[in-house]
Specification:
Mean pLDDT of chain A: 90
Low-confidence stretches of chain B: 445-449
Strand content of chain A: 25-35%
Number of strands of chain B: 19
Number of helices of chain A: 8
Number of strands of chain A: 12
Strand content of chain B: 35-45%
Distance between the termini of chain B: 34 Å
Strand order of the largest sheet of chain B: 2-1-5-7-9-11-13-15-17-19
CATH architecture of chain A: 3-Layer(aba) Sandwich
Oligomer: heterodimer
Largest sheet of chain A: 6 strands, mixed
Largest sheet of chain B: 10 strands, mixed
Low-confidence stretches of chain A: none
Largest interface: A-B, 28 and 24 residues
Chain lengths: ~250, ~450
């Protein structure tokens, strides 16, 4: 369903991803862990279409279609969603306007009829309620003055509205207290189904207590060096990366 | 070192034009002394050059090559009425029984203008009609005797027409007056409005300046002189969307008395060269003013704003908030000066000048200045020039929003807090559609972010 094959990526002549490959099947949850600087966030950004990177080799496929030639917005409307580690604050754009523009773009790209404003509002309220999110947030400028927890919940709300097939969570647990972490994880779990897949990038096993992964990968120097099940994360928590980094 | 060579031809042309004009004036006309005095000054000084500090970033003669030719008979399009009525703003104004004053090429079109008869407290006449009210003659000569502004002098020599508006309402509800200018023929046009807002009056004055066609070559000077009394509320919005070959020099002077609120907002777009000179005087205490605006530039447009706000009495507040969007090869200039006299204690003055550059070849020059002679004041100013944040753009795109739409959202977001300076929300609504159209145009095109 979502396949990254032999991806090599550089930034200003520094190779960050080195022949990276990963296959994610429908409904699977893959956790990627690894020490700082191993290329985890680069992987997330390159998959989502950020332009600061040079792709030297490889492919990123979603349902057989190569995403590398597509713009970030097209990748999104094809079904890829990146939950940002640091969601961007945009003063002057209300969250509501942003959500509406985003959803309309998805509907248009997929030849669906755009929702009327009342129907859109109903949908936002419904999704917010399902995720236990206070929908008063949507009247405020996008992410401006939001707490760390609110920003991440806003990301999850966007995920719920856009209904993606593959979600990449880039250190979604960073900057969250325990309660906020639980709320966000519950949101993600609510969105799990047999079709939707997740790549969860994290430094800490703690998030994986809440979001149970099918696979855990260790990433180092731009590629996966070890793959296991959820017990691998527990092992890492105990003994660190040293046993795996050669 | 290279020094600027004046384009002697165009300067000589303008002086000769003035000479011809002054020789045809009635020397008994009450405005004649002001005209003659202004002519003598203009003849000596000529057009300003970039050696003048106030014109440092704008070289008039590199833009103004000649006076556009004009025929003596200016055809009024048979469809001017339809043209005017096609604007939603005018339609709404008429529905609301607001007063609408229509000017074509600087001349008032009485047959198209409506002064709402319900507004017994508003009187409107024109510079062309006799007699000109005494207050207007006095206001004109006062401003002229204080003035050393070459383009204002030029306007004084050549002014042909303009609205003279006296507002004397005390009902606490604003009268709405629309002044519509349509550029319809090639030529050189000069007009002056004088507005007297008497004590306690509330008024909204909305100016709307537009070129009828893209290929009309117009050069104009305009002045608007405000005299605003005590306890007034005045909202002024000026929307000007000229074509890319119009050259305009606008002067605005305002004298503001005690306990008055004055909000003046300008939306400018287009023009080969547009100079916005504004001189605002807080003469009385406890006044609260906002002089703000947005400039949307594309193509080869050049808009130069020169704003001076003088606090001359204690306890006055001023805000100056300007935002510019620059695309293609456009150039924006902003010189803002806040002067606080020694008696103007407790002044609060804030000025911000922000520019968002959308292309490699656009340029913005900003020079904010403070001159403070009082010791108990809160004054601040700042200027920023930047590009669209790539991180913000990526965030929006990553949610499926196409690049063009994402840029439009970010450009609109950049303007939002300036637009909040339009205090009358009905006026803001009036401008929503035209603003969106302008934004769509400016944020498209040659976007090399």
């Amino acid at each position: 369903m979502f396949n990254v094959s032999n991806l090599t990526v550089s930034v200003e002549d520094n190779e960050i991803l080195n022949n990276f490959s990963l296959d994610v099947g429908p409904g699977e949850v893959h956790a990627i862990m690894g020490p700082n600087g191993s290329g985890k966030s680069t992987l997330a950004h390159v998959c989502a279409g950020k332009e600061d990177y040079t792709v030297l080799n490889g492919e990123i496929n979603l349902n057989g279609e190569d995403l590398l030639d597509l713009e970030a917005d097209e990748r999104s409307t094809k079904g890829l969603f990146l939950a940002f580690q640091y969601p961007i604050e945009i003063p002057g754009v209300t969250t509501l306007t942003f959500l509406k523009s985003s959803l309309e773009a998805h509907y248009k790209a997929n030849n669906k009829e755009v929702l009327s404003t009342p129907d859109f509002m109903k949908l936002v309220k419904k999704k917010s309620a399902e995720l236990n999110i206070d929908d008063s947030m949507i009247k405020r400028p996008l992410n401006v003055g939001f707490s760390g927890g609110e920003k991440k919940r806003n990301e999850i709300l966007q995920m719920a509205l856009l209904d993606p097939e593959i979600c990449i969570l880039d250190e979604t647990d960073s900057g969250l207290d325990i309660d906020a972490l639980r709320l966000v994880a519950e949101g993600v779990n609510n969105l799990r189904n047999e079709k939707r897949s997740f790549i969860v990038i994290t430094h800490y096993q703690r998030l994986l207590d809440y979001i149970k992964p099918d696979f855990v990968h260790i990433m180092y120097n731009g590629k996966i060096i070890e793959t296991g099940d959820s017990s691998l994360a527990l092992e890492l928590e105990k003994s660190g990366y040293n046993n795996y980094i050669k | 070192m290279l020094t600027e060579e004046k384009n002697i031809n165009v300067e000589e042309q303008v002086i000769a034009y003035c000479k011809h004009n002054i020789s045809n004036q009635d020397i008994k006309h009450p405005l004649y002394p002001a005209r003659l005095g202004a002519y003598e000054l203009f003849r000596v000084h000529g057009l300003p050059t970039s050696r003048d500090e106030q014109w440092k970033y704008t070289n008039i003669t590199s833009k103004l090559e000649r006076i556009p030719s004009q025929s003596d008979v200016k055809p009024v399009p048979v469809n001017l009425d339809n043209f005017i009525n096609n604007f939603e703003i005018v339609k709404k104004a008429k529905e609301n029984k607001d007063s609408v004053l229509v000017f074509m090429d600087g001349a008032m079109q009485s047959q198209l203008s409506i002064v709402n008869s319900d507004m017994e407290t508003v009187s409107v006449t024109s510079l062309k009609k006799d007699p000109i009210p005494d207050w207007a003659i006095k206001l004109n000569s006062e401003k002229h005797s204080q003035n050393v502004n070459e383009m204002f002098n030029l306007n004084t020599v050549l002014m042909e027409d303009g609205a003279i508006i006296n507002i004397n309402n005390n009902k606490g509800i604003a009268d709405n007056i629309y002044i519509i200018h349509v550029g319809n023929n090639d030529g050189f046009y000069n007009y002056r409005h004088m507005i007297n807002v008497q004590n306690g009056a509330h008024v909204n004055i909305i100016e709307f300046k537009i070129s009828n066609k893209v290929d009309i070559e117009a050069l104009y000077t305009s002045s608007i002189i405000w005299k605003i009394g005590d306890n007034c509320v005045v909202n002024n919005v000026k929307y000007q969307a000229h074509n890319q070959i119009t050259i305009g020099f606008n002067q605005q002077y305002a004298d503001i008395a005690n306990d008055t609120e004055f909000n003046s907002f300008t939306i400018s777009s287009g023009s080969k060269l547009l100079r916005e000179f504004r001189d605002i005087n807080c003469n009385g205490s406890n006044s609260n003013i906002s002089i703000s605006g947005i400039n949307l530039l594309d193509g080869d447009s050049h808009i130069d704003t020169m704003l001076t706000v003088k606090h001359k009495a204690p306890n006055t507040i001023s805000r100056e908030k300007y935002k510019s969007i620059l695309n293609d090869n456009s150039k924006g200039v902003f010189q803002g000066n806040i002067i606080v006299d020694d008696i103007a204690q407790k002044t609060i003055a804030k000025q911000s000048i922000d520019a968002l550059i959308l292309s490699k070849n656009a340029e913005h020059d900003a020079k904010p200045e403070l001159e403070i002679y009082a010791d108990d004041v809160q004054c601040g100013h700042g200027a920023t020039t930047g590009q669209i944040s790539q991180d913000s753009l990526f965030y929006l795109k990553s949610r499926g929003i196409p690049e063009e739409e994402a840029k439009r959202l970010l450009v609109h977001a950049f303007l939002t807090d300036a637009l909040e300076e339009i205090k009358d929300k009905k006026i803001l609504e009036t401008f929503a559609d035209v603003m969106n159209n302008m934004l769509n145009r400016v944020s498209k095109g040659n976007l090399n972010v």
